[in-house]
Amino acid sequence: MQEYSGLLIVNIKTLAGIDDGEQLLKAGSRMAEFERINNAWLLTEGSRIAGFGTMEQLDMELYSRPGIKVIDARGRMVFPSFCDSHTHLVYAGSREIEYVDKIRGLSYEEIARRGGGILNSARRLHDASEEELVEQALERLNEIIAFGTGAVEIKSGYGLNTEDEMKMLRVIQQLKKLSPLTIKSTFLGAHAVPAEYKGRQDEYVDLVINEMIPQVAAANLADFIDVFCDRGFFTVEQTERMLMAGIKYGMKPKIHANELDYSGGIQVGVKYDSLSVDHLEFTGDEEIEALLGSETMPTLLPGAAFFLNMVHAPARKMIEAGLPLALASDFNPGSSPSGNMQLILSMGSIMFRMTPEESFNACTINGAYAMGISEQYGSIARDKMANFYITKPIPTIEFMPYSYGSNKVETVVLNGKVINP
Ligand code: NIG
Ligand code: FE
């Protein structure tokens, strides 16, 4: 039984990712600012962070405060939990056979045209019960908790008909209740055109607008709306129509854009004040221009570019132009079957040449912004939610992205509670 009302973590080798809680994102050169204190303490009260400082200034009375659980973090570091702003982690089964097709040389688009890809996952989802989907997704959620994630966005989009899209969103609603993670849900009915609408794409768009969006909104099942606006999927015009309908029902957009081509997806995302535009492998000067001066978070998904062996987004160019960047896992069965944000942190540095500080900000505060929750999450700040992890003994903060592939997280705290996933 956990009967404490607060945690006092002492002797923290480095407490990283601290700020005053005022900045909702970090852009351009400020992405390099990832403040820290060495030899630190951190105090929580209920679900919130109540204070922190250096051990020299620790009030000894705190040790004997009623309801306080003391954790000695000697040799260990504390980081704000990862905020993973883009996943499709509710799905049935897996798609490793397509993965072998990919190794043999088929492209993502070729597999999709053969009825594989998203449509394959849609068939499997149709056959799975809500209970089975909840059970499988909970296992994935527990895994990402153990890797240090504290907040996650989950999309629908393997339903592709009204009933199954609603089913997916109900599963996400269940997960919100069952998991200690903070979860945001996104309606992605326009993830792919189902086979029966082949050649009648606009009719499917009409179905999304006239049937799915009103029903999803009436049941209050989605925080956001997403569209896969890219070559071979949905056009800019179709995207606009769907975004307008979603916005009318109070769903803020988050767009899949420019993964396969200069699709116009970034510009349409900015036009409709999207919280984020995601993927962005095909980002040129015009796209950067559109993003500058907007409130839209450019979000890169290195797991997908790595897994599909595709071109990389021009991350350095974007940061140097003054843009913020978020990094997310894209956890899904087709293009990124992992939700390990420590790996994404490493990929930010390895594939995008982001410094460890930039990569940490992209995986925490900027990811929180891309879910609309950076007032409460994404950094260690007084009164923010107590969502952080304590590492195993590690030498430096740089060791986190450097030592890729192993789990450096030892203890997870979510909402002020020590979690054993
Ligand atoms: O973000 N790009 C579109 N959708 C997903 C892939 C989903 C799938 O292949 O199942 C993505 O990569
Ligand atoms: Fe995605």
Q: Unreliable runs, pLDDT <50, ≥5 residues?
A: none
The CATH architecture assignment of the largest domain turns out to be Alpha-Beta Barrel
Bound molecules: N-(iminomethyl)-L-glutamic acid, fe (iii) ion
| Beta-strand residue percentage | 15-25%
Radius of gyration: 21 Å
CATH class of the largest domain: Alpha Beta
Number of helices: 15
Mean pLDDT: 96
Number of domains: 2
Question: Any idea what the CATH superfamily of the largest domain is called?
Answer: Metal-dependent hydrolases
Helical fraction equals 25-40%
End-to-end gap: 15 Å
Instruction: Write down the CATH topology of the largest domain.
Output: TIM Barrel
Which structural class matches the secondary elements? alpha/beta
What can you tell me about this protein's structure?
The structure is a single chain. This protein has 421 residues and is α/β, with parallel strands linked by helices. Helices cover 34% and strands 22% of the residues. It has 15 helices and 16 strands. The strands form two sheets. Strands 1, 2, 3, 4, 5, 14, 15 and 16 form an eight-stranded mixed sheet that branches. Strands 6-7-8-9-10-11-12-13 form an eight-stranded parallel sheet. The structure holds N-(iminomethyl)-L-glutamic acid and fe (iii) ion (FE).
Which descriptors apply to this entry?
421 residues, 8-stranded parallel β-sheet, binds N-(iminomethyl)-L-glutamic acid, 34% helix, 15 helices, Urease, subunit C, domain 1, TIM Barrel
